[in-house]
Each structure stands twice: as structure tokens, then as C-alpha cells.
Amino acid sequence: MDPQTEPRFIQHHPSFSKIVGRDARYQLLCESQFPLFHEACIFDPRDNSVFVTSNQLHNDAGHDSADTDNKHVKLTCIRDTVGGEAVVQEISFPGSDHAMLNGGVNFGHGTILLCAQGSKNPSDISGIISLGIPPPGYGAPPRVVVDSFHGIPFNSVNDVVVSPTDGSIWFTDPSYGHGQGIRRAPQLPNQVYRYDPHTKTIRAVADGFVRPNGLCFSPDLRTLYVTDTGAIHGSPDVPIDLSGPSHIYAFDVVHVASDDSDSESSSKEPFLANKRLFAYAPGRFPDGIKCDTAGNVYAGCGDGVEVWNKAGVQIGTMAIPGGVANFCFGRQGVIYACNETRLWKIFLEADTVKGALLGI
């Protein structure tokens, strides 16, 4: 492999050695001439499958669509077989051509949530959608979970996470879609939302971002991390602002009783408090973000996957030329990293590295 494209491990703090171990390595799981491996990156432990969304692809001649600026996004399932060979399968569903999918997360047995940015056409699928995954699920239409804030359409939902305590759905909604020419002018601020599927209520829980992007909970669920990739405007006509936001913020998750009672039976609503800068990513553009069960924070950045301990000290980088938008934990210390035209499988210390999201 060309040394210019060879991934490597960079240690910034001695504790990074506990993550990489003695036998850390990279494996190129699959490759494409198109940027098929961009976002989502959802691991299905049932058969070692990873679901990824592509970057925005130009439509073929004769398939013009002004509603999506003549672009589309593919959803692909990559099954990591025992023999080490990847089985790649494209997934489509009714309306998928105009859904312009982005981030996603596991949502119960045999179901995933996907962020459908949508198009300029209000009748196209948009918002947080639920999709059955095999077996069964191929070809079945998705279910729209939430597509607006009290009737006001979202800007272009970007990434999503589910609270394991109450099943609430937390997601970011930056205005990237408008700059990319696939959405109408935004009608809402760039915010973080929480949707309760049981009560069907939705709240804005955090604001003040330029472009909120990835989000994840700490293993003890007391902290929510949110990335801000405001250094990237989204429009091809606006250059990257290297002095703009490439930050990770941390919030305390606190709960307030919904009535005057302090009894245990009183229902409580979570609030985000004590916003603080957790880290500035030197590789810039921290996008997808995850925690391991030890509380270390990982983010896909312009230089690969950067890692911080829970005190905000950067301890290492899994340097991948071309960067990583999103990634996910697999089994036994494995990370799958989306590198646009390549999907990398990273082998870390199997006995100590486990993703907090799935606990595997």
C-alpha cells in the first residue's frame, strides 16, 4: 500500500496503549470507486453487518431531480464474514432516492433509525425514520417517527442516538441541507432535540451551535457530548473556515420533576446543563462520536478517529488519510471506520475496548 494512504496509530498519552494493545492493526474491509462509506455506520451484532450511507452522489443522466439538486444517497449493508471477506448489498426502500440519508443508530431488535435529510419537496420522506433490517426488512417502507417540530419542518436532521433508559430519541438538526441545495431555507435554529416516542412529545434541548453534528451519551448516561462542525458551511461556494468550530461540547444530563411532587412516582424530564468545551479537535471537523465503556470519547475527524479520555485529554489518534466522518464499534475491540471510498476495520485491544452503545 502507498505509504501516503497507510493508516497508523499515533499515541499522545501513555494510556492510549491500553486501547491499541500489542496487536493493533488495520484491515481494508471493502473499497469502491464511489464514496459509499460516509455516514451512519450502524453495527448489527446478529450477523456482523454494518449499515452505511454514502456521501451525496450525482444522479445518472436522465434521472434529474431539482428537488435533490440532481443528487442521491445510497444505503449499503456490509456483512463482515468469518472468512474476512465483505459481502456488500445495496438497500433501497420506497422513497429512498429522495430521503438523502445521513446518520443512524440501532433501535431495538431488527430495526434501525436513520436521519432522512429530505429534499426541497415537502412530500418527500424526511426526519427521523425507522427501518426494519434483515431478516426481514429489505424493500419494506420506512416508518416516519418524527419529521417536524410542532409542524415546523426540520432543517436537515443529521445524527441520532437513543437513550437506553427510556427509549427517547435525541438528534441534531443543522442547516447543512440548504447549503447543499437539497432543502429549502431553514425555519429553525441549529439545535439538538429530544423526542419521546411514548408520549409523542418533542423538545429542543440545546442551542447555540453553528452546525451541531454528532452526539452520544457517556456510559453512565450523565453526560451528553455534541460535536460542532461549523467550520464547514455546507455550500460548495463557501470555503472551509479553519478558524471556525471544530469542537466537542459536554452537557450534564439532569432530571427535573414534571410536577410539584418530589416522589419517586413523579415523572421527570431530562435537561442539559453546564455546557462546556470538552475538546477542540486538532484534525478538525469532529463528526460522528462514540464512547467506550471506560468513558473514553472517540470522534471521526479530518485526520481519522481521535480519542480523548473522559477528562478531555487527547490520548491518541487512529490516523487515516482522507479522514473519517463516522464509525462504529463492533465485537472484541473492533472499530469500523467510514473513509469515503474505503471501509476500514480497526483491531484494538479485544479485552478492554468495548463500545458503550451496545456494550460489546
From TrEMBL:
PANTHER family reported for this sequence: PUTATIVE (AFU_ORTHOLOGUE AFUA_1G08990)-RELATED (PTHR47064), SMP-30_GLUCONOLACTONASE_LRE-LIKE REGION DOMAIN-CONTAINING PROTEIN-RELATED (PTHR47064:SF2)
Positions of the SMP-30/Gluconolactonase/LRE-like region domain: 145-229
InterPro entries with a match to the protein in the record: 6-blade_b-propeller_TolB-like (IPR011042), Oryzine_lactonohydrolase (IPR052988), SGL (IPR013658)
Matches recorded under Pfam families: SGL (PF08450)
Gene3D superfamilies: TolB, C-terminal domain
Highest taxon above the source species: Eukaryota
Organism per entry: Exophiala spinifera
Name under which the protein is recorded: SMP-30/Gluconolactonase/LRE-like region domain-containing protein
Signal peptide start-end: none
SUPFAM superfamilies named in the record: Calcium-dependent phosphotriesterase
